[in-house]
Amino acid sequence: MIITIKQNRFFAVFLSCLLLIFGFYNLTALAENRVFLDLKLEFLGEYNLTETTYQESVIGGFSGITYNPKKDVFYTISDDRSNLSPARFYTLKIDLNNNKINDINIENVTFLKNKEGKIYSENTSDTEGIAFSPRNTLFISSEGVFKQNIPPFINEYDLDGNFKSALRIPQRYITKEGEKKGIENNLGFESLTIKSNGTMAQDPFRLFTATESALVQDVDLNNPETVLRSRLMHYVINPFGDPVLIGEHLYIIDNPILGTLYNGISDLLSLPQEGYLLSLERTFGLRGYGVKIYQLVMANASDISNQKSLAGEINNITPIRKKLVLDLQKLGIKLDNLEGLTFGPRLADGSQSLIMVSDNNFAKDGKQKNQFLLFKLT
Questions:
Q1: I want to staple 156 with a disulfide (CB 3.0 to 4.6 A). Which of 12, 164, 214, 252 is the partner?
Q2: N- to C-terminal Cα distance for the chain?
Q3: Residue with more model confidence, 1 or 378
Q4: Could you tell me how far CA 219 lies from the centroid of its own chain?
Q5: How many whole angstroms separate alpha carbon 208 and alpha carbon 196?
């Protein structure tokens, strides 16, 4: 076959275009990889807490967990709405020798008290998230109680359960009769994490939380994907004045696989690196429970605090970027209703431990467990 000079030029231009296209995509992929940290989670083992009661309280409903490095103990929050026992958190001592959970001992149960100094009465709270703060306190979130018109809250308590302060929640998260706005029933502030860079108790720190699913005003009933548009809030806590909400961002939850009945964000965890978080997305459906851990990058995400609704077109909004770190369904174990995650102490090799906990929904038939999973973050 004879190729003319004109054909040679055509092939040269065509080849150049191909190189430019493939080069562009390769550069884009490389740039995207540079955005994210090189993280891996290695599964080390499982432990099931079998105790059912402690000091006349019903054990279960572990919806969140956090670590106190000063005392080397963990705190788990129960999502009991004070129906079985008063709203409470448990203090746990977890033995992590030899890179496994050897034992878990419950050291204490602490009942929370409201602003009036009284324990929460039935159906006045739905505590879901918990985070240990640099000032030796706990921040605890409640989804609220929809049927009782009890609004959600994020409060600070001392380690004895006494109320200390409350974060101001924007009105767009508060449900009011006759208004199409606010948190959907049981889909509120399930997640909570704190990021601290200071060395002193009085240094400012940041708090992050996200709605488990979309707000009422962010859902278009004709577009099912809008229920996946969660809002993530970023507060700064300081010793002077009220906490300040400095950012609100769009978090897009993964599309559910076939047979999924429910999916949403169950927890967040701040990474040591600035502007990075982990998220826990949990699903439930015909195939049982599923959990995926994502790495989040906050940089360049649009602030949506002035966005009245996310139910329409969102092409002008840059969401939080995320990358899958681990799909727990690939671990080869039966997953329970995992809802909380936290960093723990360093392991023997110096690597960072990460612990996850499940909410057994106070199941009496033994079909659900208080499941703890141990991982190594590398």
A1: 164
A2: 57
A3: 378
A4: 21
A5: 11
Residues 162 and 286 in one domain: yes
| Rounded alpha-carbon distances, angstroms, from residue 256 to 158, 281, 326 | 39, 11, 16
Residue 33: its pLDDT value, please? 57
Q: How far apart are CA 139 and CA 295, in angstroms?
A: 23
What is the number of domains present in the chain?
Answer: 2
φ, ψ of residue 27 to 5 degrees: the values are -65, -40
3-class state of residue 148 by DSSP: helix
Model pLDDT, residue 258: 81
User: Alpha-carbon distance 227 to 229, whole Å?
Assistant: 6
pLDDT tens for each residue of 172-199: 999 988 889 999 988 999 999 999 987 7
Are 24 and 99 in the same domain?
no
In a shared domain, residues 143 and 269: yes
Q: Are 266 and 243 in contact (CB under 8 A)?
A: no
Please give the model's pTM, rounded to 2 decimal places: 0.90
Let me know: does 90 contact 78? Beta carbons within 8 Å.
yes
Position 311, amino acid: A
Q: What are residue 66's DSSP bridge partners? A: 75
